[in-house]
Design goal:
heterotetramer; A alpha/beta (458); B alpha/beta (266); C alpha/beta (253); D alpha/beta (388); B: 266 residues; alpha/beta; 10 strands; 40% helix; disordered C terminus; D: 388 residues; 4-stranded parallel beta sheet; globular; binds adenosine-5'-diphosphate; binds iron/sulfur cluster
Chain lengths: 458, 266, 253, 388
């Protein structure tokens, strides 16, 4: 019962390219401050919304969501003393005192608290440059639209929300009988041969989303005075398409045994792809990562010497304590794959109408086969991942302050166990606010889970 | 061969000696401030009960809160694994376990080969744990053992509205001061514990056979109320507080035998 | 006219007599008896010590957890309201009040005229209330004042690992066992309560000064720690237990 | 007279079953005000609001849904899972928030109603999900929602085996316009001082209108309004309050009486489903489907957003409800884990305080008797604060 204060630490990276992410991130924040100084328009946006338009229209995107992750890892003034509060907790308290409830997503509470504090000097990475506009979206969660709307109201800058139809659950994906029949279906997912929807997308849904994208272009033109140029946009779309191809190769390489790249590296190397899609430096980063992986697979080099059991990770990440991803290594267990943030084939390029292509990609992300929060889709993604990456067990992140991404988790646990005999264990805490994390309960569960998997493996 | 299982719980420490699958001796004491000292005392108690010496033990497994700091050579295994194994030994048909000790409450689902497949634990709030009953019993100056009998015959139990153990104590006292009969208050207290604990069982899902272990199994009033909500009879091991220690002893035996065969745990 | 404010709290019953808007008498009663009976008892004691002629009118205002059970009360007012009235009477200007008792804690922000602008509080969980101290004192077998003294002189602090007032008992025992000094342990207990109280104060906001009352205000360490955590001056009145009862009486004065 | 409305709320299951027996008609459950009730009414169907199950112990929902989800929806799903709503012929679900859009999945999994299928596709599934947009203004929204309503109408036509013509829609619209008109009269009465109709009575009248055919309710309400106009005003002078909240149904509707017992009166509200939403009738000059779509796109619930560059729509909506109701304070009674309502609260709170000088009280509801009991002393303190 006498828990010490939770010891939190970043994860141990095993890939050289993964160690290059932190300098890449710092350079990205420095570039944002430089852009602000040069008078370039800054937009605060969110991770799930494709970014190609921003680069093509000379608007520099910055992400309160990612800044919240930084505040979850850093203490005030960069201090290393464990008793000094993490910035995320300090900012969250400010938001909570204004009436925002502690059950809200850690991203929102941290970035709202940071914005309410106004300017102060020792903000991590120099803080966020003030935005000229804020752009959000309605898919994945309701919170994202309302939280960024509050920031726009607080900073009194123009606001736009890109609305995407909230597609229902593809019940076909979880009919008991159909499930095992679906597995071969997945292996046929190759670009162009099969679009990524089980239940067809109606035209009015695509038309509506396309209108929203075109309205967004008018919004940026209005606020910044910059003009949309289809050729430049196609250039950026081409780069992001080729980058995605490389990332698909990486996903294949990660299926090797022993696993050449674990979830700790997977989650940290998602930054270039998620936040700087469409830039050349992102493309170069993933080429380096793919080449390093190819070399490791050739040498049969795994993250740990002898892999006793392979684990699947479900959900977002406990950014404040990434060392959890190395926890099972002492038992011979390794986290091999995380479906979140990972790519699926992009729709084929249509340079004559790139906005329609972007629309189809948005719809796939919002309600297609990989939508993290559509229950049917989420269940089938996990079932497919567990088979592709030969996982003996899964750790399910019950992110207690994010409901949409967590709703399918109960169903996933049931389907994995009852239909595929794959046991799972829950981890319950916030993304970046460590106050709700109980080390004793987490370690007790992880130990018990490791014992169970080792017994099964023996 | 003789094996020992030691379970140092938050409120009580238990030890069991196993010989060829038969329980030779056991001992139960309340956990003192020094859990290392307590684990040694309770093990010696069990050895005396079995008429054995420490040296004869082939293997010892410790579990519970104080499992890491027992001052004798041992393996330590999680409470969940020990409780599951202990119950599986007594009731192989068990699929759901409710273990309610002093400071925590666990709901465990297990499969036919006795492995736990899902579990949930509440150890953050005293509501719905053994301590809640102790605090209430002490404030109404009633002994734990007589809580059930004293709660009988209450036609309309008083609803204890506060979840918090401390405020529930105050609420019970103010009912008492207003002359509300003791059995109505006690019935309300048992209801509030059963209600909160049943919510935990619901999270892991309830599948027959249903077993209740830990000190709470001695409280017939709570057990009956949980059975009413579960719409299912609960099996109670003969010594419900010892299942953890029992499981630990069996795992000690399993560990020792598997060391002779293939490699044991990492 | 004599107005008697009676604060029926979870821990004890407090009463203040007010005449011509000045304090005429005060009484604290640790009666275990039922609210209405206790209130009757304390009323008699107040009447005995307040100067009033037989035919002079006596009005009773009840507040606190048990206010609805005081059958003979002429008026019933909430705790938030009464601590605001009492604090304004003692302080004069605008301020934020923190009232921490056995049964819960609440923060109230009042304007220059004493008008209540905003309030917040916690009465669902016993952490961050006087009950946390009561449990700690039972475990360490020392009195409240002794715990306060020890905590004041302590240099370090042994954190209490649980937020639950009931589990605090075993958490404190394990701190004792892990060899922490008694002073550090007491300081850890005060720190655990103060952190909860700071969150409640932040909900309503505090500018220059915090008026700290209720039984927990008797712990000088908590007052000191609040000053450090909130960065504002903390004023503890000379009879913090009686502020609510005083405010109750004043609401009819 | 008031007991007529009270009866429908108290015995809602029996009343709807009785209506089905008497008329042989179908009853469709619905959850959100975005549901095009007029289309259902035109098809002769009884739209009946699905609500929570009060303090009934929950048995099934925990196996499917995490504990930290809207407690109102959890209670409703548990009731559905136990078969309490099995008398409904179909259930209409809209995208009114993250959890509501997934009720489509949870209801189908917890209480499956297999219906006839062709090539594995259900002709008209038991749970009908309308992917209503989150934005209610800006280009493309009207056309999009009209397509969703068109598909919904087709399902309904297949299920009731009839074509729903424009005439049928127009006659339904006239009944609903009369309903909106009467409800507006009721709300205007609540703005008068001294007050003649209590908040709790108005709430029961409104809630019952969501359970019965609107023509029946119109008839009863028209008569009851005359009765209210001629009666003596309520005694005492209660503090006039505005109530904003979610998941307010027959059970959590007790918040009205809790406020009244503490010396207050709710004279205006913004509580989710209820015709109090519709400040104006449906435009009868437009083609009926377009008129219904336009009417639903004027609902400013906490989930919907507009395409305003500097959005203040929710605060403007609250101000429009409060206008000339002489409100002294605003109580926010918000279910736990309701992100839409919690996230909008600070901005509205600052607006009410700075622009209108109206203080606010925020109460967390976990859809239990406990959270209602806890609200009592906070509301009393709030009212004492307003009475100064
Ligand atoms: N004779 C009894 N009758 C009723 N309840 C009992 C009895 N003995 C113990 N208990 C309950 O069991 C709890 C302790 O259970 P136990 O399993 O020994 O705790 P732990 O394993 O956590 O140390 C006590 O808090 C008490 O509520
Ligand atoms: N010297 C003291 N005397 C009495 N109570 C004290 C003292 N120091 C601290 N306290 C705390 O104050 C609490 C009682 O405060 P009080 O304001 O009377 O509470 P309530 O109003 O809820 O009854 C007790 O729980 C106790 O822990
Ligand atoms: S973590 Fe969940 S709630 Fe937070 S922004 Fe992401 S999807 Fe939304
Ligand atoms: S509510 Fe009471 S029992 Fe629960 S954590 Fe708080 S103090 Fe402990
Ligand atoms: S109360 Fe909030 S979370 Fe619950 S259904 Fe309504 S909008 Fe959704």
């Amino acid at each position: 019962m006498a828990e010490q204060t939770a010891k939190t630490a970043p994860s141990k990276k095993s890939l050289q390219t993964a160690r290059e992410v932190w300098p890449y991130v710092k350079e990205e924040y420095a570039a944002a401050h430089r852009a602000k100084a040069e008078g370039k328009p800054i937009v605060w946006s969110c991770a799930v919304l494709p970014k190609e338009l921003y680069w093509a229209m000379d608007v520099h995107p910055v992400f309160p969501e990612h800044y919240a992750v930084i505040t979850g890892m850093m203490r005030r003034g960069g201090s290393k003393d464990e008793n000094v509060e993490k910035e995320a907790v300090r900012f969250a308290r400010v938001a909570e005192s204004a009436g925002f409830s502690s059950y809200l997503c850690g991203y929102a509470r941290s970035s709202i608290g940071y914005t309410m504090l106004g300017d102060f000097e020792d903000a991590p990475l120099g803080g966020l440059p003030k935005p000229d506009m804020i752009i959000s979206t309605s898919f994945v969660c309701d919170l994202r639209g309302k939280w960024l709307r509050y920031l726009a109201q607080k900073l009194d800058v123009p606001f736009y929300v890109l609305d995407v139809p909230e597609r229902g659950c593809d019940m076909a994906l979880i009919q008991p009988g159909l499930r095992s029949a679906l597995l071969p279906f997945y292996n046929k997912i190759r670009r162009g041969e099969r679009d990524l929807f089980v239940s067809p997308v109606a035209d009015h849904e695509l038309d509506y989303t396309e209108t929203q994208w075109r309205e967004l272009i008018r919004f940026i033109e209005e606020v910044t005075g910059h003009k949309y140029d289809q050729d430049r946009f196609n250039e950026v779309m081409e780069t992001s398409y080729r980058t995605n191809e490389i990332r698909l190769e990486i996903l294949e390489l990660r299926k090797a045994r022993p696993a050449p790249m674990g979830v700790a590296d997977g989650l940290s190397t998602m930054y270039p792809g998620l936040y700087t899609t469409g830039t050349q430096k992102a493309y170069d980063f993933y080429v380096r990562l793919r080449d390093e992986l190819k070399a490791r697979v050739a040498k049969n080099e795994g993250i740990i010497p002898n892999e006793r059991f392979r684990l699947l990770w479900m959900g977002l990440a406990p950014w404040f304590n990434m060392s959890l991803f190395n926890y099972f290594e002492k038992y011979g267990g390794v986290f091999v794959f995380e479906p979140i943030y990972n790519m699926v084939p992009f729709p084929p390029r249509t340079p004559e109408n790139p906005i329609r292509e972007l629309t189809i990609r948005t719809m796939q992300q919002a309600g297609g086969i990989i939508a993290p929060n559509m229950v049917g889709q989420a269940v089938s993604t996990m079932v497919n991942a567990a088979h592709e990456y030969q996982c003996a067990g899964a750790v399910l992140f019950y992110l207690i302050t994010c409901r949409p991404v967590v709703y399918p988790t109960t169903e996933i646990a049931r389907v994995l166990q009852e239909d595929f005999g794959i046991p799972s264990v829950p981890l319950e805490c916030d993304l970046i606010d460590e106050r709700t994390y109980s080390e004793a309960q987490t370690f007790a569960r992880f130990d018990a889970f490791a014992e169970q998997l080792l017994k099964a493996a023996a | 061969m003789f094996y020992a299982g030691v379970d140092v719980g938050s409120r009580t420490a238990k030890a069991i000696i196993l010989h060829d699958g038969r329980q030779m001796g056991s001992h139960l004491i309340s956990t003192g401030a020094d859990s290392a000292e307590t684990s040694k005392t309770v093990l010696e108690g069990a050895l005396r009960d079995a008429g054995l010496e420490m040296g004869l033990l082939k293997g010892i497994v410790t579990t519970g809160y104080g499992r890491y700091i027992a001052p004798f050579p041992h393996e330590s295994i999680t409470e969940i694994a020990c409780h599951t194994r202990g119950v599986h030994q007594v009731f192989p048909s068990a699929r759901t376990i409710l273990d309610m000790g002093g400071q925590d409450c666990k709901a465990i689902r297990l499969n036919e080969s006795g492995d736990h497949i899902n579990f949930v634990m509440n150890d953050k709030c005293a509501a719905g744990t053994g301590r809640f009953l102790e605090v209430l019993a002490r404030s109404l100056d009633v002994r734990l053992e007589e809580m059930t009998t004293l709660a009988l015959g209450a036609d309309n139990p008083i609803r204890i509205s506060s979840v918090c153990a401390v405020f529930a104590k105050e609420e019970a006292l103010s009912h008492r001061r207003r002359g509300v009969p003791l059995n109505a208050i006690l019935a309300g207290v048992l209801d509030s514990v059963a209600e909160r604990v049943f919510k935990l069982i619901n999270v892991v899902g309830l599948e027959e056979d249903f077993v209740i272990t830990g000190g709470i199994a001695l409280n017939a009033g709570v057990v009956r109320r949980i059975e009413q909500r579960a719409k299912m009879r609960a099996l109670i091991p003969p010594e419900p507080q010892l299942t953890g220690a029992m499981g630990a002893a069996w795992l000690a035996k399993h560990l020792d035998e598997s060391k002779l065969g293939k490699g044991g745990y990492a | 006219m004599l107005i008697v404010g009676i604060d029926v709290g979870q821990h004890g019953i407090k009463a203040v007599g007010v005449k011509d808007s000045a304090i005429a008498s005060q009484e604290v009663l640790q009666s275990g008896s039922e609210a209405n009976v206790g209130a009757g008892e304390i009323l008699e004691r107040i009447l005995a010590q307040s100067p009033h002629s037989d035919n002079e009118a006596v009005k009773v205002v009840a507040t606190g957890l048990g206010r609805k059970e005081v059958s003979f009360a002429d008026l019933r007012r909430t705790q938030e309201h009464c601590v605001a009235k009492g604090a304004h009477f003692l302080m004069g200007g605008a301020c934020t009040i923190l009232d921490a008792g056995a049964g819960g804690c609440r923060a109230v922000r009042i304007g220059p005229t004493g008008k209540v602008l905003e309030f917040s509080g916690n009465s669902k969980c016993a952490c961050g209330t006087g009950s946390f101290f009561t449990t700690a004192c039972e475990v360490l077998q020392i009195g409240m004042d002794r715990l306060d003294e020890l905590a004041l002189q302590a240099e370090g602090l042994a954190g209490v690992s649980t937020t639950c007032a009931v589990f605090a008992e075993s958490a404190i025992i394990s701190n004792v066992h892990r060899g922490f000094g008694l002073g550090d342990i007491c300081a850890g207990i005060c720190d655990s309560v103060t952190t909860r109280l700071t969150d409640v104060v932040h909900r309503v906001g505090v500018e220059e000064e915090l008026f700290f009352c209720g039984g927990v205000a008797l712990m000088r360490t908590v007052g000191k720690m609040l000053e450090a955590q909130l960065g504002v001056k903390v004023h503890v009145p000379e009879a913090p237990l009686l502020v609510a009862a005083l405010g109750a009486a004043l609401s009819l004065a | 007279m008031a007991s007529f409305f009270q009866e429908w709320v108290e015995y809602r299951h029996e009343k709807v079953r009785q209506w089905k027996e008497d008329t042989g008609g179908k009853a469709y459950g619905y959850l959100c005000c975005m549901t095009p009730e007029e289309i259902l009414y035109a098809a002769g169907v009884l739209p009946a609001k699905v609500m929570g199950a009060g303090e009934a112990p929950q048995e099934i929902v925990d196996k499917h849904l995490v504990r930290y989800a809207c407690p109102y929806v959890r209670s409703m799903l548990d009731a559905a899972g136990r078969g309490e709503y099995s008398y409904l012929d179909s259930v209409v679900v809209c995208n009114s928030c993250d959890i509501m859009s997934r009720v489509e999945y949870y209801w189908r999994t917890m209480k499956p109603h297999p219906k006839s299928t062709i090539l594995g596709v259900e002709l008209s599934p038991y749970v009908l999900y309308i992917k209503s947009p989150e934005k209610i203004s800006g280009p493309g929204v009207h056309e999009y929602l009209r397509s969703e309503f068109r598909i919904f109408k087709q399902h309904l036509e297949r299920d009731t085996k009839q074509v729903i013509t424009d005439d049928m829609l127009e006659s339904a619209i006239s009944v609903y316009n009369e309903h909106y008109d009467l409800m507006r009269k009721l709300h205007d009465l609540r703005k008068e001082e001294p007050l003649k109709v209590s908040g709790s009575e108005a709430f029961v009248i409104e809630l019952s209108s969501l359970l019965m055919r609107k023509d029946l309710h119109n008839q009863k309400l028209a008569a009851h309004l005359k009765n209210i106009e001629t009666r003596e005003p309520l005694s005492g002078n209660p503090v006039r309050l505005f109530l904003s909240g979610g998941g307010v149904d027959h059970f959590t509707g007790q918040i009205y009486t809790v406020i009244e017992e503490a010396g207050g009166q709710v004279v205006a509200e913004d509580i989710g489903v209820g015709s109090s939403w519709f400040g104006h009738g449906i435009d009868t000059d437009k083609p009926p489907m377009d008129a219904i779509v336009a009417h639903r796109l004027d609902v400013h619930c906490p989930h919907t957003m507009t395409s305003e560059r500097h959005p203040r729509e929710r605060f403007e909506y609250v101000k429009s409800k409060i206008k000339d109701a002489n409100v002294k304070g605003a109580v926010f009674f918000v279910p736990m884990y309701c992100e839409c309502r919690n996230l909008e609260y600070p901005f509205i709170k600052e607006g009410l305080r700075d622009e209108l000088g109206i203080p606010t009280l925020y109460l967390d509801s976990d859809y239990s008797q406990g959270s209602l009991d806890e609200a009592v002393s906070k509301i009393e303190a709030f009212i004492e604060m307003l009475e100064e």
